[in-house]
Automatic annotation (TrEMBL):
Residues 628-652, 665-686, 796-818 are annotated as: Disordered. Residues 753-787 form a coiled coil. The keyword Coiled coil applies. This is Cilia- and flagella-associated protein 69 ARM repeats domain-containing protein. The keyword Cell inner membrane does not apply. InterPro entries: ARM-like, ARM-type_fold, CFA69, CFA69_ARM_dom. Residues 34-391, 433-637 form the Cilia- and flagella-associated protein 69 ARM repeats domain.
Amino acid sequence: MAQAWRRTMLASRTATAVRPSSSKPHDAAEMDINFDSVMQLMTSKYTLELVDRHVAAVRKIAKSSSRGFLLRHLEPLVELLRLVVQRFSQGQDEFAPALEEFIRVAALPFVSCKASDMITYGHHLSSFIKSLVSVLGVSSRFERVRIEVANTLACWSRSGLEQELLPDQPLIQAVADTGTPNLRILQQSQVIDELSASFKVEESPEAIVITLGAIRDMSLYRPLARQITNCGLLSNLVHVIRVNLLGSDVHLVAGEVLWNVLELDWEGCSEALGSMDVMESFRDFMEVVFAKGYRFKDKIFRNDMMVLLMYLSKKEENRQLFADAGLMGLLCSHAVSREKDTENIALTGAEEDVEFRVLIWNTLARCCSNPSCAEVAQRCGLVASLLSSLSTRRLEMEALSTLFLLVQHMPSAFREANGHAIVVRLLRETTTREMRNKCLHLLQVAVRSGFSEALGQLGAVGTLIHIFMDKTVPMNCRQLCASVLAGLCSESDANRREFRKHGGVEAIREEVLYRPDETTDNHLFFVLCVVDCIWCAVVGTRKNEVRFLDAGGLFAMLDVLEVAPLLLKQQLMGCLADMLEYKKAARLFISWNSQVTMKGGLKILLELWQLQQEHYGSTKDGVLLDTDRPLNPREERGVDSVTGALQASASSNSERLRRAMTFSDAQGRSVAPKARTPRPPPPVELGKQDFRAKIYAIVSCIGFACHETLGIAERQQMEVVKLFPECVQLETWIQVQEKVASIKPIAADRRWIEESVAERQKKTCSVQELQQELADERQEDEEASLERFYDDIRNRAPQRRNGSDGTGLLTCRPGLRA
């Protein structure tokens, strides 16, 4: 076995690319091979029985081409090889030695006599490989022939890989998509099917090793890796791993093939390996490794197999197989720490054993999303074992990462092991940033699993507020603190009270601002977590709300609402809608004015409403387009009615008026001093979430009576805001009508539906008429303004004529050139 492996390595080192080497002078015998005479000798009815002469002719051709076949001879070589294979399959065993010599020469690079030989004859290479591989199907009794074929394929697949190797880059990344000329030829020849069929029944250890070497190099190329998956070879590789002795070369090569295929064709490979027999083979092999794999190389290969199992566990369909095959129980029994374990080799503090712990923990944590696997893990005490590993400095980070997954699937086991108390104590005692973040991530999922009350009783609220108030702590860590505090206080009055007692209200108020330019961290997500914490810890608890309002929290939120991006605006509006149910908060909202634009909160909300309406195509020039669907029209309606024509006319006139007014505004800006105006916010995607319901909820809390002067466009939007519930009901009734169109309801139900739709349509039509009147009023104002603009120009004309010089050139001010 070792000799076979060394032979494969030697062949890999000496092989060169299939592309022709530099032309060298060849023997006359090699140049003058008469293939026609050989074919006539083998096919003529007079010499058909002279098998010994046929064999001698083939051997002579191989001997004369001892430095490699010529590319110009490819076509006759293919015909000759097919004929020899055919005779060999018919029982003429005398061809076996000749085939060995012929195939041995085929392992050498082809030689070109001219620079154009590869272009002229290279298309025959795939046919040559197909004929060569077909020998495997007819040589079951001749081991040496199969070995030579495997060696030739190994040389071909390895050839050219060294030239693709780049420094600091794995070979698989260099050739995965582009391959090498040889690998592309092998892929076109479909050699994997024949090679797989032969490998499944191969009994020769030497042939198995050499074939595995060829398959290993082929698996570096993605199309060939997919062929390996499709031909069912992977299950045979796992079987080979199971039946061979620990430490054998076969294990290393077979494991590398599985690695390559899994990396290049994860979907296909994980599906191909997701069967009961494969999982049982893995179980049997891992059982042997746990009991007898004490050598360093055994542990390295054990870790490689664990990585494969970890990748297989990523596919949810495979996780049930872990439990059914007994693999889950075997892994859990080895992962759980025991004082006395005489069956398996004890894990040490060596690097390979630490790596193994991390791999097996991650694999088990993924599998525990399956109920059967979770039951096995709970029975073995996996969570308690991981919690005990938190006292080991080298493993505490990995143990926390694994617990992060397990808490989501096994919260009861985490509670029974008192895991929440251990994590809170670790959070208090740790001083490293990484450990603190790991603990906070774990607490994030713990509060979702119903640990809020238990964590509050342990004083977690005060600990988190203390970390949050520390300005020296990085922003991402404080962000996690705000998120965990939101989870703790969302459903616990006791935790909200603790939040207030430890100064959490004042601390969270100080962070209600949006200044992304002042930090390199992601300030947006930090503020989102802060708003979420306010929503959960302050809103809904009257004492917390009073303290927050007295600290100026509402005004700070409105300041942020004006300048925040859309994602943060949505979060703020939801929080404000709940906070304004408190009347004091509603009064403060009405009294607020922007320090930048002097707008009130209502105007900002109506601007957001208008943007949402325009995004859904509900209005044009502030007028509803579809009275049946005032919020979400089906599609843009054509102008085919009198109302539509009027709207189109008004729209075009308004557009001309706006262009003229733009010129007038430019004149005014050229004379008047420039005032500082806020930069408009960047364009945002409005379709991700409909926040019109949030705007309605806020406006309904402060009252629909206008407390500030609204423009015409804002008054138009305000009419729709008032009617928002009726608009939603109207669209819902129309959807009901459409869905029951094929059903004939009773008269009472039909009348009820029709009356409900008609009643709400009447309201939307009245709103549309009112909006149209406001649009007409705006058009009249714009026309009057435009007329005043033209009158001003006409009045200035005599002054400009009087100001002309003697040359007749008109002198005028910049911006008023005639």
